[in-house]
Amino acid sequence: MGPRRFPGRKASVDTFLETLQHHIDALPSHTKRTARDYLAEDRLTRRIRHGEQSFAGELRGYQDRYHPAAAVDEQGLSLTCTCDRRQPCSHVSALLIDMERQILSYPEVPWDVVRQWVLDTVWQWDAAFAWQLVPDATPEWRMPYRPELGASVLAQVRSADYVPLARDPRVRIWAEAHSSWWEVPEFLQGFSRWASGARLSSADPRLCAALIWMQPALPMARLIDAGLMHRIALAAPLLGWLFHPRPVLASSSARQLRALESLTLAVPDGSGFLWDAFPDVDPYHLARADALYLAGHPQHAMRLLEQHLPTESLARRAARQRLVDWMNLDAGIPHRTALALETGQLDFVLPVRHLIGDSEWRSLEAAVRSRAGDGDEEPDRV
Ligand SMILES: [Zn+2]
């Protein structure tokens, strides 16, 4: 991962905005004036970002189109523009002023560019960027859901036609949708219907892998139902995204986690070293255990959690809760007892009451009640 000055935490956004402000203050006044004119005349369009590091757009000048870009690195901001004038030119200046106003609404590279990158084996990073595939304005589904904007998007996702994945206009919506859309029941139903009819199991694995990488909010259960997650053909392209030094869609913990889950589901045996290669993504092995369990390897999942029982109390409770859910009543007694003692809640051991002797039960009950009486605030479960 590169520098994470933005937008990880509020403080880093502020630091980044301060740097921007600094650059803007230092602009010659006539450059600033031209830049503001460009923005007032809506000449900056096709805004995109690459991860948290690079931002670019298309500027329709009075004679030509330019592509100003700003990249964040250890030194600060580096500025480039296709006009070849001395930097900072008025085009880059317009970009900086616009970024200062609305950096959080710069969308990532769109699906259409990703699709071209995936399917066209000739296109490389040093090739001209496919600006014509970036829409002028950010589509509604890339912005937080609002009922008054939702109708036309929902009408598109409701369509029941079968179209091959590479040409299906809905894939763009699944790939790019802002996470808030996945909370809208109609949107989710549309996806479920699409996933069950889209013949995902026979679609190009490179496209499927790109979709999974781009949209970590895709409902995993639906992909499993659609037969997608049991395809070994997904492994190579997913590994390509996971280990690419500079993927066209920047890496993030959410993307790494989803790729690791998908790889575990597609190739359950031997995916362990991959999780070990990204230890920060799943520090308590909970997601890895879930994926193994879903992949039909419950013994492996349980062994993993028992061997790495977290010391941090909320994570330990989450691990024990899984073990209790996955084990039979007998085997789960030690974890149920521990949960009851740690939380002061007898509910955890009630299902195994008949497996515990009367005197043992009485002392357990007394211990749990005294724990409950400690008056400790009950933290939320993870
Ligand atoms: Zn320029």
Q: What characteristics describe this protein?
A:
disordered N terminus; 382 residues; five-stranded antiparallel beta sheet
Topology:
Blueprint: H1 10-25, H2 29-40, E1 44-50, E2 54-60, E3 65-66, E4 69-73, E5 76-80, H3 90-102, H4 111-119, H5 147-158, H6 169-176, H7 185-197, H8 205-214, H9 220-225, H10 235-243, H11 253-266, H12 272-277, H13 286-294, H14 298-307, H15 313-326, H16 329-343, H17 358-372
Antiparallel strand pairs: 1-2, 2-3, 2-4, 4-5
Helix pairs in contact: 1-3, 2-3, 4-8, 8-10, 8-11, 10-11, 11-13, 13-14, 14-15, 15-16, 16-17
The structure holds zinc ion (ZN).
Task: Write structural notes for this entry.
The protein has 382 residues and is α+β, with helices and mostly antiparallel strands. Helices cover 50% and strands 7% of the residues. It has helices at 10-25, 29-40, 90-102, 111-119, 147-158, 169-176, 185-197, 205-214, 220-225, 235-243, 253-266, 272-277, 286-294, 298-307, 313-326, 329-343, 358-372, and strands at 44-50, 54-60, 65-66, 69-73, 76-80. Strands 1, 2, 3, 4 and 5 form a 5-stranded antiparallel sheet that branches. The radius of gyration is 26 Å and the shape is elongated. Zinc ion binds next to helix 3.
